[in-house]
Every structure is written in C-alpha cells, then in structure tokens.
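Cross-posted from the bioinformatics board.
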Amino acid sequence: MYEQLFSSIRDRVRLADNEAEEIKRFFVPKKIRKRQFLLNAGEVCRYIAFVEKGMLRSFSVDLQGHEQVVSFACEGWWISDLSSFLSGDEAVYNIEALEDSELLLLTTESMEEMLNHIHGMERYFRLLMQNHIVSLQRRLVASLNYSAEDKYRKLLEINPDIISRAPLQHIASYLGVTPETLSRIRKQVSRKP
Amino acid sequence: MPATATIALCHQTQRIVTTPITIAIVGATRPKGIALARELARNRCRLVLMSDDQSALSDINRKLAGFAAEILTQDCAKEACWEAEVIILAVNETDALTVARKIKEVATGKTIIYVPDHRQAEGTSLSDKLAGIMPFSRIVETESPSTAAEWASAGRDQNQDHYQVQL
C-alpha cells in the first residue's frame, strides 16, 4: 500500500527504518473509483494526494464550460491544487479519477507535523517543489514555443503512460489541441517516428 | 462536461459543487446499520454499505434508490473502509474487534464511529480496545444512530486532528 510512496521518497532521500514506519501514520489511505472526484473547483483543497495505483487528472473549466486539462498523475506522482492547498483559498482545479485509484492523502496539518518530525521529508518535499517549478516552466515554454506535434512527441518521450492510458480527448485538452488534430498528429508520428 | 464539474471562474453565477464525503457502514444489514443508512441517505454523500448478507444488502440498496446519497455496496470490510473517510461500525463487540483488525491498515487518519447493536452494560466501552488496534484513527462511540449520523456527516472536519487519538 505504501510501495510507490517509499520508492519515491528513497529515490530522493535516505530514511531510517523507524522513520518509514512513522511516516505511514501521517497519510490517509483512500480508494477512489473511476470518474469520482477528489476535488471540485470552488471548495478548499484539503489534501495533496500521492498516487499508489491508478490515474487522475486535474482540470479547470472556462467561462464557456470547456475543460482544460492541467495535469495527469499516474503511479508515483502527486496531484493537488497546490495554490488552494497552501493558501486555503478556493480551488480552481477539479481532480477526477480516470481509473480506479489508490491514493495516500496528506492534509496541511499532517504535512506540517511530518516535516517537523522527520527531517528527511523536508528535503524530499523541497526537491519535489523544485521539480514542480522546473516542469511548470517547461510546460509554459512548450505551450508558447512548441508546435502541437512537438508537444505530443515530448509527452510520448517523457510520459508514454499518459498516452497509452488517458482518453484521447483529455490528452488533446492537455496539449491544447482538438481531438481531431491529435488524431492527425498521432497518424503522422506513427508514420515517421 | 461531467455533471459534477464546476466552473471555477464565475462563482457568482455557478453553484459550487462540493466533493461528497464517503461514509462506510460496516454491518449495514443489521438494525442500527439500516437505521443509519436511511438517515444518512438523505444527505448528498457516498454511502458504502458493507455486509456479508448480499441479498439483504441488495434489498436495502433498492429501498434507498432515489435518495440524495450515492449508494455503493461492498462485501469486504477492508475495501469498504479503504474508500471511506468516515467508518461506522454497526456491529456487536466481538465483530467490531474482528473488523478493526481487518481494516486497521486503511483506517489511518479516519474517524471510526462505533455504534453497538445492543445496549451495553453500564460502564463498559470498546473504544479503548478499538483505539489500541487502530491508534491513528479517531474513535468515537454512541448507541444512537441519529447521533452517529450527525457525527459522520461532520466527519471530514473532525479528521483534521486525525493523528491524535481522542476518546
């Protein structure tokens, strides 16, 4: 139940054996079924969620009611509306399970308590935040400068899991193209890999 | 667009949909479990009804159709409690301890409401034993289904201090 979490932590920091046991008590295990929501925009995001199994997406909805997929999270990834989680403001993202999923939830209070108790976890979250900032910047640059095909190729290279598991319309939304354009790009890419 | 998605940028014109709390009732086909299910089904929540008696469970499920709650059923206590944020044990003392041992791994950080299905002798309480098995859960006990339903509905807020055992 905690295999992916400890793999993610041990890839980045060293933990004493007793610390691993202690860490478990801060996380709330939660199963969520496909198409259930973990968060709805407008409420305060109470958790950051670590994905042990399954897949989720976060998305916003514009004034016309169109969904914009912001991120996906598969096994070993975190997902949340960080802005809401850290500030206590209303969330702008919805988070929905794309598959039956097993999550480990961390509240702000538990997180604070854990960071105060287990020094290695403070470093772990600092590294996570660094990675998050880097990936946000890359996504921003890609959305400004890359063609749709380049963005698709990059996603295929870095996160092939998303391409194989997420529904086409959600991948299209994530890349900022229509499903029809994405189908055309996929055909092009499969012809000249 | 899914019916539960909300438009975040125009709160003044859109109804904000809150994510429903998930409540598991272990012993959902026993008298107090049925009373609890009926009471909680009036609210917008997800109710995971757990029992070994599948035919009685189907019967309750049918009777609760059309209520505000989304009704789900499970024949495994651990699976039911894994989905839930609040867990109600509507079983007798022996079964409560057995269930607690089965679900302890998935009960961390959750509120456990123990509702004994018969009146207990004066001064006896199972809460201490349950807390011993599930030390990182918040254990509360009541004989009243309506009090249990009230606590369960407020359970998510009570989970905030989950790592301190409160009796």
